[in-house]
Design brief:
β1, α1 and β2 form a beta-alpha-beta unit. This protein has one domain: Rossmann fold, CATH 3.40.50. The protein contains eight helices and eight strands. About 45% of the residues are buried.
Length: about 290
């Protein structure tokens, strides 16, 4: 089957601003059937209206809070109730918080939003990805995964027993994004599901602006050297649309090419263990 997104279904999470919005705008021009996720209905409607005005394409809105596993389950079921195709799932929604906090489910918020929520969402849609194969999953990771110098902290995923340094916590969740893609390929590659992770570059977005004075200051000072959201979206769009992808050199990309990652990001054993723990933490049915 030739790879073409015309009349194929694509989900883009975290699409009301920044990179996700830029990805949605560009993929709308391919003729794909878009679904964008939003936490706020009004923001979702605003972006959907912009997409229609600029591209002539309609985008469905799926309300979901990835820090709330109940919300994730409801959103996945809502999608499955009315859709029978999923060519591309782009897990782009994410956050970074300056101080440790927990979600309604009791998980540390950054890890929950950036990994556990997207992990559960992907898991609940995996059967549809398989039945729609060939299909692709793209996880927005970051070079910040290098801050996870000890790999995945299986004995302290929520940073309860060590000092909470927000960039280490964020990097830890971004490492999880790469390992999630790795294990998706191991489990479902033979079923036609291809998974990748990307570093979009240092992009001017609203990520973390409301969480920490240090984060806000870094964004203000470094803003002039940061990439635009459209530039940050480029590799995601390429991975979603490129007819032929070569993953023989790796699954972590930057600037349309395989990029260097840490040894922890290439650790198949960590990927497998993280998957098993994530299944337990998200209470995947049947596990």
């Amino acid at each position: 089957m030739d790879w073409n997104l015309t009349d194929r279904s694509v989900i883009i999470t975290g699409a009301t601003s920044g990179i996700g919005k830029a990805v949605a705008m560009r993929l709308a021009e391919t003729g794909a059937r878009l679904t964008i996720t939003a936490r706020n209905k009004d923001k979702g409607r605003t972006v959907a209206s912009e997409i229609a005005t600029r591209t002539g394409s309609n985008a469905e809105i799926l309300l979901v809070d990835f820090a709330d596993l109940g919300s994730v389950r409801q959103a996945a079921q809502s999608y499955l109730d009315i859709n029978d195709d999923l060519a591309v799932l782009i897990n782009n929604a994410g956050t970074v918080v300056g101080k440790r906090s927990t979600t309604i489910d009791g998980h540390e918020k950054t890890f929950a939003t950036n990994h556990l929520g997207p992990f559960l969402f992907t898991s609940l849609l995996t059967d549809l990805l398989i039945s729609s194969a060939p299909s692709r999953v793209v996880n927005t990771s970051s070079v910040a995964h290098t801050y996870a110098k000890e790999g995945i902290l299986f004995d302290d995923l929520g940073f309860e027993d060590r000092r909470y340094k927000f960039m280490e916590v964020y990097g830890h969740s971004k490492l999880a994004n790469i390992l999630h893609a790795t294990e998706l390929n191991a489990r479902y590659g033979d079923d036609g599901v291809t998974a990748m992770a990307i570093h979009p570059g240092v992009v001017r977005t609203g990520l973390g602006n409301g969480t920490s004075r240090i984060v806000r200051l870094a964004n203000m000072v470094g803003g002039r050297w940061m990439r635009s959201p459209d530039d940050g979206a480029d590799t995601i769009v390429w991975l979603a649309t490129e007819p032929t992808l070569d993953l023989s050199e790796g699954i972590y990309f930057e600037d349309r090419a395989v990029s260097k990652s840490t040894r922890h990001a290439r650790d198949d054993d960590q990927a497998r263990e993280l998957w098993n723990i994530s299944e337990r933490l998200t209470a995947i049915p049947g596990q």
